[in-house]
């Protein structure tokens, strides 16, 4: 069992930046690929970004490419999502997930990001 806690969400204006953090309870974060997902009101949860166990490979949804950067520090059991040039359509609850076999296995509780126009 891995417990994940997200932080760093908030209210920001269009064009602003936020950095989300996801801290794992166990010192085995390097065992898992990690992903960020988001869910806007009335919509399904969607993939945002993924990073491999070593951090050497990353993937992004087309909607965030060039604006968001996922990174990890396995020594600190933490995964980050740097979000720049934020848009109102980025408004959502953001979740981190520890993945096994490319599928989310453990989820955090989420952190709200609101981008005002």
Notable characteristics:
117 residues, mainly beta, four-stranded antiparallel sheet, 54% strand, globular
Tell me about this structure.
- The structure is a single chain.
- The chain contains no helices and 11 strands.
- Strands 2, 4, 5, 6, 9, 10 and 11 form a 7-stranded mixed sheet that branches. The protein has a 4-stranded antiparallel sheet with strand order 1-3-8-7, with no helix packed on it.
- A hairpin with a 2-residue loop joins strand 9 and strand 10 (103-107).
- It starts with a strand and ends with a strand.
- Helices cover 0% and strands 54% of the residues.
- It is an all-beta fold.
Summarize the structure.
With 117 residues, this protein is mainly β.
Number of helices in the DSSP assignment: 0
Strand content: over 45%
Q: What is the helix/strand order?
A: EEEEEEEEEEE
Rounded Rg = 13 Å
The biggest sheet amounts to:
7 strands, mixed
List how many beta strands DSSP finds.
Answer: 11
> Poorly predicted ranges (pLDDT <50, ≥5 residues)?
none
Secondary-structure-based class equals mainly beta
Q: What is the global morphology?
A: globular
Spatial gap, N to C terminus: 39 Å
Q: Helical amount among residues, as a percent range?
A: under 10%
Mean pLDDT: 95
């Amino acid at each position: 069992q891995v417990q994940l806690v997200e932080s760093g969400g908030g209210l920001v204006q269009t064009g602003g930046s936020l950095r989300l953090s996801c801290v794992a309870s166990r010192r085995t974060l390097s065992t898992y690929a990690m992903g960020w997902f988001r869910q806007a009101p009335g919509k399904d949860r969607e993939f945002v970004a993924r990073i491999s166990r070593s951090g050497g490979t990353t993937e992004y949804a087309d909607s965030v490419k060039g604006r968001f950067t996922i990174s990890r520090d396995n020594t600190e059991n933490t995964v980050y999502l740097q979000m720049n040039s934020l848009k109102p359509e980025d408004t959502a609850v953001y979740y981190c997930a520890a993945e096994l076999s490319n599928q989310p296995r453990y989820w955090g509780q989420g952190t709200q990001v609101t981008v005002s126009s």
